[in-house]
Amino acid sequence: MKAIGIDPGLAMTGFGIIEALPRGGKACDWGAIRTEAGCPIPLRLKTIYDELKGLLEKWKPNFLVLEEVFVLKQFPKAAIQLGEVRGVIYLAAQEMEIPVVEVRPTEVKSALTGSGRADKEQMKKAIRQILRMETSLSSSHAGDALALALTGLTRNENFHW
Is the pLDDT reported for residue 61 higher than 90? Predict the structure, then answer.
């Protein structure tokens, strides 16, 4: 069973693929899809779509775990851009017939650290411990994506540690 976690963003969309093993799991791939601020929005969305589609074709996950939207009222443009990014993520998953599961950020933090208010460093440490990773997680977006995949696998009772 494999899951891909996606931390959506226009500038940087984090991804993390985890394969569930009989006991524990293996981080197969992680990173971030980056787009340039000066590029037109349609080109940035196409970049995210194309790179995500390539990841889905390569890893063939059983489902995609997407972070639920949370935006601040004072940044309406950010909400619209996030919606556009989520749209291309849904499209790529739908074309590959990969189900999408949404997870709240507080559920992810609580599942991995026991606290819904855990900070980025606590999350990275928990991910590395759970997955027994030697490599550090330089990108917080990739770390968030791995955390989403872990939470999705745990929620579906495919991951046990």
Answer: yes
